[in-house]
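Annex B. Sample input.
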Amino acid sequence: MQEDKARMLEMAFKYTNGDVEKAKAMVTGQYNDIVAIKAKIAFHKSGKSGMLMGFFNVNFRYVASLDIIIMSNSDLYNRVRVFSDWKSLYKDLTDYKKDDAIIKNPTLLEKLHEKLSEPAMLTNVVNKSLDDITKFVNNSLNDIFPGDRISSQLELEETSSVALGGAGIYINMPQSAQPAAPASEPKPAPEAATQDLSPFEAKLAEIEAEAEHIVEGVSVISPVKGKFIADLVPGDIVMVLLPKGDAISKKILETIKAIGDDGSIKPVRSRLKYKVVDGKGPYYIYVLVAKGVYAKLIEEENVKIRVEFTGNEKTESKGSYKFLFIAIGFIAFLVLAGLAFVKWF
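Annex B, continued. Sample output.
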């Protein structure tokens, strides 16, 4: 036991530049120098999926360890739960490497390591800016795979170099023994590669880049209390279902208590952000279901989906019916008056 503690302390000295107090705190779990990035990746055009795990040293500002796998189908995106702890996910990643559907790409890790080592990315990690990290990772992957359209779901977790070493993860050492000077102002992340996308696909990519997460949504069809999709405008309140069962959807449903005792899900109140259609269809609808989360709905036909009308719309509707009844009454009066006039003469 003492030998293990001495070995951990020796390792901690190395990663704290000999700082005794920080080294002791790291061994006891009270000081973290690593931010773990846990990500699952969707390749929307090719149908592939991927998993990324990156460990960034925020003290020396460098990529301590990085691993990524790509699978020829969507299984990885469906299986990976980024909210699980990094140790469980790293074990899963190791196991997934044995799958026959894994695609070999000898240069991928090197290319990605180079991109994620840029000062802008390292600054984002130090600031723990999930939005900026997600966009940077997406843009980097789109640069590496320009023929595809890629998005990812990410989560961050703090840990330490000692914890990584204890888990048997190889850790790169910084080039300098001294902590890096604060990075200069981060340069903008490169734009997503859209040269191979149609204007319609580029528009969808631009919309999806705005959100932290994209989840799958399903329309609630309502012929009576509904509104035709073609008539929807941004700002409309739309009721949707989140049936996918991913961690983000589940968290939203649990927060608003939209899961019944029997496990059934209830519609979620959302606000329409975008409605995009290419020619005659289908309709691509993006609604805001939580902060930073868009639900994406795809409808082939111009059906009526359930909306919540505002008070003004109801008043206007009632006013329209009232006007219709007055008009009908006036026409009936004219007809009766005309008949009476004819009979009189």
